[in-house]
Write a structure and sequence with these properties.
The chain is mainly α. It has helices spanning 14-21, 25-49, 56-61, 63-66, 78-105, 112-133, 151-176.
Length: 177
């Protein structure tokens, strides 16, 4: 006796399409975390190059809450450093979300060149937003402790952090098959 199996095929609904176009939070947090770490490490490095304590530019980010005096704080502290890292992380997760959202809208194969181009574009958009569109109180605060010579390093670190998780995944896929 033959067994007949009926499969239900359901047409894709709007929610399925929306879920496919939304970046996963895991991917977004990975890219945001990588970029936040890269930016913080670069800010600390640039502070050393410019003769300042490493925590000063991270503390300066907390000027959003504590005002310009945050940029004068030179030591590691929960109040300034902790909030500075949290605010930097939140901003980087936002830029990672935008980066991942753009990726979901693209068609075609992923290439390292496309990853780099998208990362640089989002980083440039972040710079323009940070220093030309938002009120002074909402800027990242790096300008309060670092010279403008450091900015291309900071925004390059943002771009590198945004593309790093996807670039590593690209390399894994390429090696495995």
């Amino acid at each position: 006796m033959a067994r007949i199996v009926f499969r239900q095929s359901r047409p894709p609904d709007r929610q399925d399409a929306a879920e496919q176009s939304e970046p996963s939070w895991r991917e977004t947090v990975a890219a945001g975390g990588a970029s936040s770490l890269a930016v913080a490490a670069t800010a600390a490095w640039r502070a050393g190059v410019e003769g300042q304590p490493a925590w000063q530019p991270i503390n300066a980010v907390s000027h959003i809450a504590w005002g310009p005096c945050a940029a004068e704080e030179q030591r590691l502290s929960a109040r300034y450093t902790g909030l500075g890292l949290l605010l930097n992380g939140a901003a980087c997760v936002f830029w990672a979300w935008l980066y991942r959202r753009w990726r979901r809208s693209e068609r075609g194969p992923v290439s390292p060149l496309r990853l780099a181009g998208r990362g640089v574009t989002i980083s440039a958009l972040a710079y323009v937003t940070d220093y030309y569109l938002v009120p002074r109180r909402l800027t990242p605060g790096f300008e309060l402790s670092l010279s403008r010579r450091s900015f291309h390093w900071l925004y390059s670190a943002l771009a590198a952090g945004l593309i790093l998780p996807e670039w590593l995944a690209f390399r894994r896929r390429r090696r495995s098959g």
